[in-house]
Amino acid sequence: MRYRLKEKLQTIPGVGEIQVGGVERNVRLWLDASKMGCAPGDGRDVLAALTREHIEIPAGRLETSGVK
What we know:
The protein is mainly alpha-helical. It is 35% helix and 0% strand. The protein starts with a helix and ends in a 15-residue tail after the last helix. The mean pLDDT is 76.
């Protein structure tokens, strides 16, 4: 998807260069089994909560010098 967008944006008159970048994010969790024993559920519940609550918010910048 990101490379198709880059190709389309490069065809716009006046566009000099498009740079696509990003960092793959990782989340690492260390679950303490002895502490999880007193709570209902298990590691699968933690994974389900992360999957359910995960949001991805786009970020970036747009630079222009007087679009007409």
